[in-house]
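Incident log, structure service

09:12 report received: a user says their structure output differs between two submissions of the same chain.
09:20 pulled the input from the user's history:
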Amino acid sequence: MVRRLPADCRSGRLIMQETLTLAWYLMRLRMRTRLQYRAALVLAWVSQGFGYAGAFASLWIILTRFGGMGGWRWQDVALLLGFHTLGYALGACFTFVQLRRMEEIVRDGEFDTLLTRPVNTWAFLSFSGFNIEYGSHVILGVGLMAWALPKVAIDWSMLTLLQLVASLFSAALLTGAVITSIGASALVLRRARYIFGIYFDFWELSRYPITIFAAPLQFLLLSGLPFAYMAYVPVAALIGKPIPYLGDAAAPAAVAVGPFAALIAAAFWRFTIRRYQRAGG
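09:34 re-ran on a clean worker, output below:
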């Protein structure tokens, strides 16, 4: 006898299947569009790569000249930078370029059109604008991590490997959640660009070991503005560096913060959708 699923379960599974199929179609369409101009794409990757490499080279000079930064040697910081760059790229390729335009999307009435489509608005914006220009970030992040991981003291095991992968996924979710929340604020505030400026100010700080900052800023980056979880906390937990306020809870916190932030961002997106008033008022 064949066991049948309840009708609501079948319909829910069908909706999820259709959503995933549509998301994959939109991503492939976006990639095919961008790959029509391969030379421009490669130039964008190269220019971004050189920009990041220049900033990282400055840190390398400082660290090799003075021997370290807050107890972190160059190989430790290289792992931090690689993790930060890769985690950011994995989260931002689905959110940043798409949601940075929310002011214009709302003001020009484009969002009103999106609301008439039988698809989740965030999913449509995210996957239809999937950005492969973060390829240079991925290459640079993976390269730095591949160079640094054999040079730092890590007691490797299956659990450690899972911790690395899960915390990287969590960092990507955290990046996407923060950018989503900023973009969603445009639905009620009508402005969000200035918040992105504030975001990148703190994002710059998250590249460094937070132990070099004053205690109040450390607490802020570990609590109200959790930028420390984008790289510092997971990397410090992986290589056994002391982490203020968290201690042994750092590793599970690094894994949990991203999914938790994603749930909050999803709830905030739905809240702003309910409070949204059309461009015409």
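09:41 both user submissions now match this output. Likely a transient worker issue. Closing.
09:42 reviewer note: The longest helix spans residues 158-189. The CA atoms of residues 68 and 233 lie 18 Å apart.
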